[in-house]
Amino acid sequence: MKNLFTFQFQINLPVILTAFLVLFIAVLPGAGFAANSVRINGSGNALDMLKPIVEAYQKTNKGVRIEFEKPLGSSGAIKALLAGALDVVVASRELKAEEIAKGAQLRKFGRTPLVIITEKSVKKSDITTKELEGIYSGSVKKWQNGESIRLVLRPKEDIDTHILKGLSTGMNSAVTTSRSRPGMIVAVTDFDAYTTISKTPGGIGASGLTSHITEKLPLNALSLNGVAPTPKNLASGAYPLFKLIAIVTGSQATPEARKFINFVYSPQGRAIASRAGVLVTAEMKENK
Q1: How far apart are CA 47 and CA 88, in angstroms?
Q2: Diameter over CA atoms, the chain
Q3: Separation in Å, CA 233 to CA 92, 103, 181, 239
Q4: Does domain 112-242 correspond to CATH entry 3.40.50.1970?
Q5: pLDDT tens for residues 165-185?
Q6: Got the DSSP string for the chain?
Q7: pLDDT > 80? residue 14
Q8: Where in the chain is the domain with CATH 3.40.190.10?
Q9: Measured at the alpha carbon of residue 140, what is the angle toward residues 137 and 144, in degrees to the nearest 5?
Q10: Does the pLDDT value for residue 261 go beyond 90?
Q11: Angstrom distance (rounded) from CA 51 to CA 194
């Protein structure tokens, strides 16, 4: 009986192991494709720039799965990257010292204008710094047609808030004042900001040009002091507001992540980004 039991065990063990592996893969969706996936997140405006780039990349790399989730913002995505939950982050700010110490590596890609946007029905195409100061401080509460102005703010530490405060001494004070005004709308992410403005009668706020171009939402992109928010005007210094776009990886990027990043910086990737509202400033250097 002992020999019979031993013989049966030897015969059935491979079958049992195979069945176990099949079951293991079945209960882990995507586990068989993990080596060919690139998990990306970051700033909403930068992710919007990546959408047409990803579409072009997958036309010739059909076996690679690019994973996008709801935007976490630069800070949240960098935390996820350092925890091993992401492969690539598109950030709109420089790295902090503690992030660098933990292995985060940043490579700049370009800049996109930070645009003052309004809900589509607002009859306005240009705005001055003085007008913005009045809107943010609360001294100006109505549009010319009598409609109430609904200002959409970003969190205190958000990069968009800092950029707007840097426009002028008056804006620095006005943006600070806006945070203490009752009943203000605060949008946490880029996506929240531009979708909220698009749905709010009389809405106004700010967003990267990349989102305005790629998402095609019912919004007006205003010129500032008579200067259009274009990459060309950004390059000349005529337009003052812009957001950084940079690629962040960990110290050990996967081969598929490096391949995708190289495509982003390639002539084709750069051309797509330019059409999406980016002033590409990075040199074409392969990420090995």
Answers
A1: 11
A2: 96
A3: 20, 35, 34, 5
A4: no
A5: 999 999 999 999 999 999 999
A6: -HHHHHHHHHHHHHHHHHHHHHHHHHTSTTGGGGGGEEEEEE-HHHHHHHHHHHHHHHHH-TTPEEEE-S--HHHHHHHHHHTTS-SEEEESSPPPHHHHHTT-EEEEEEEEEEEEEEETTS--SEE-HHHHHHHHHTS--B-TTSPBPEEEE--TTSHHHHHHHTT-HHHHHHHHHHTTSTT-EE-SSHHHHHHHHHHSTTEEEEEEHHHHHHH--SEEEEEETTB---HHHHHHT-S--EEEEEEEE-SS--HHHHHHHHHHHSHHHHHHHHHTT-EE--------
A7: no
A8: 35-111+244-280, 112-242
A9: 155
A10: yes
A11: 17
Q: Tokens 């490096």 map to which residue?
A: 258
**pTM given for the model:** 0.83
Q: What is the pLDDT of residues 195-231, one digit of tens each?
A: 999 999 999 999 999 999 999 989 999 999 999 999 9
Class level of CATH domain 35-111+244-280: alpha beta
Q: What is the mean pLDDT of the chain?
A: 88
Residue type for position 67: E
Token pair listed for 89:
């982050």
β-bridge partners, 113: 242
The per-residue pLDDT for range 263-284, each reduced to its tens digit, is 999 999 999 999 999 999 997 5
CA 37 to chain centre: 19
